[in-house]
Amino acid sequence: MTVHWIDPTTFERNISPLACRRFKGAHIFDKIVELIIDIHSEYDLRLPKITKTVTDNGSNMVKAFKIFGKPDLPDSDCANILNVNEIFDKNNEQSNDDMDEDEMSILKGFPEAKDSDIYQLPNHERCATHTLHLIPSRDIDKARSNNNSYRKVHDAAMAKCRAVWNLCARSPKACEIYLEITGKSPTSPCPTRWNSYYDCITDILKVQETINEVLRKLGLAVLKEIEVQFLIEYINTSKPISEAIRSLEGDKETFYGCLQPELY
Questions:
Q1: By CB distance 3.0 to 4.6 Å, which of 30, 103, 147, 250 could disulfide with 254?
Q2: From CA 116, how far away is CA 41, in angstroms rounded?
Q3: pTM for the predicted model, two decimal places
Q4: Cα 167 to the center of its chain, rounded Å
């Protein structure tokens, strides 16, 4: 978890890491809420201090903020809530005065409620870059399900790319062979980031004149001409989304106002 804020003097964005913890067990929404609240409490990050929390589009994250997120209430509604709270506080004080010693001793046996026991998360914002990552991957899945010819070429080309990525990631010897023949170091994609697949396919196309020699040397199936042409078209059609993702992933110069112009 990181925190971002605007310096009131220089108007520059500042970034600082807050926590990097191991998440044990299933990543279900209520456990996510507990972890976020725990980190907020450790750094005394109360809701008025937090403008928004940005996360990916994972269903567990979305559900956590949908159920426990802070509601966007008008000022009049907030005032009404404060008035109601004041009434309850006064009633509680009066009730405590009317209690006898036996009743008070019984209540002392129960733990008092703490602020941290009331789970409420800040306003939520889904990461626009992560949404862009989902667009090409989902469109590809639709194309594969609707077109058998596309599916065959796509699956064959991607399987051969994955074979060389996986082998080079596991074997230093394979990396040496790749580097010796192509003159470039092999790359491998991150499974959760579509843009890394785009970059890795681009790297393969940069050495397309020698990639089949690498595949033969490593004992892998070579790329056919139609599969190479498919990869070229894949990169050409995906380039605008890849460039938009790269532009919006910046830390210092990326703001809310950059999103809509980048999309259009």
A1: 250
A2: 7
A3: 0.69
A4: 27
Q: List, in order, residues 6 or more apart from 5 with CB less than 8 Å away.
A: 13, 14
* Residue 107: pLDDT over 50: no
Distance of alpha carbon 74 from alpha carbon 80, whole angstroms: 10
Nearest to residue 220, comparing CAs of 164, 158, 162, 155? Answer: 164
Alpha-carbon distance of 5 to 61, in angstroms, equals 22
Nearest to 129 by CA among 263, 248, 258, 253: 248
Q: What are the DSSP E strand ranges found in the chain?
A: 2-6, 13-17, 53-55, 124-126
Helix, strand counts (H, E) of the chain: 11, 4
For residue 74, what pLDDT is reported? 52
CA dist., res. 176 & res. 170, Å (int): 12
CA separation for the pair 182, 119 (Å, rounded): 55
- Tokens 């046996």 correspond to 109
CA dist., res. 147 & res. 230, Å (int): 14
3-state percent helix, strand, coil for the chain, nearest multiple of 5: 65, 5, 30
Distances (CA, A) of 203 to 157, 165, 168, 183: 14, 11, 14, 12
170 burial via Cβ count (<10 Å: 0-12, 13-18, 19+): exposed
Give the integer Cα–Cα distance in Å for 198 and 176. Answer: 23
pLDDT digits 0-9 by tens, 115-171: 444 578 999 999 888 888 888 888 888 888 999 999 999 999 999 999 999 999 999
Judged by phi (left if over 0) then psi (alpha if -120 to 50, else beta), residue 183 lies in left
* The pair of three-digit structure tokens given for residue 35, joined into one six-digit string: 């972890």
List of residues 6+ apart from 162 with CB closer than 8 A: none
